Amino acid sequence: METLQSSENLRCTLCKTNETSKWHFSLDDNMLYCIMCYYQAKSRGKIREADVFEVINNCEAKKAEEKHESDMYEMIDF
Predict the structure, then answer these.
(1) Residue 45 domain-assigned?
(2) Which of 24, 44, 70, 71 could disulfide-link to 38, CB 3.0 to 4.6 Å?
(3) Residues paired with 56 in a beta bridge
(4) Is the pLDDT of residue 50 over 60?
(5) Tally of structural domains, the chain
């Protein structure tokens, strides 16, 4: 499984933005959606959720993972 190191080269197929940390790729129409365009297309029934994969910018995923680990340590009572 490949991970993305940067989202600099990624652009939303519809609005052409690269300013998002979460992407959705649709196998149904082979399009890459930013988070906003994804929810718009989904609400209009343009894409099938079963054919969509979530792509997360590696940097943001690492931050989320670190926060989760931090939260888990706070819950542990030594």
Answers:
(1) yes
(2) 24
(3) 22
(4) yes
(5) 1
Assess whether pLDDT exceeds 70 at residue 15.
yes
For residue 12, being part of any structural domain is answered with: no
Pick the closest to residue 14 from 2, 4, 23 (CA basis).
Answer: 23
Tell me if 31 is assigned to some domain. Answer: yes
For 16-25, how does the pLDDT look when each residue is reduced to its tens digit (9 = 90+)?
Answer: 988 877 888 8
Residue 39 burial (CB count, 10 A): 12
* Residue tagged 């888990």 (tokens): 72
**Domain region containing 46:** 22-75
Q: Are 24 and 51 in contact (CB under 8 A)?
A: no
CB 32 within 8 A of CB 23: yes
What's the full length of the chain, in residues?
Answer: 78
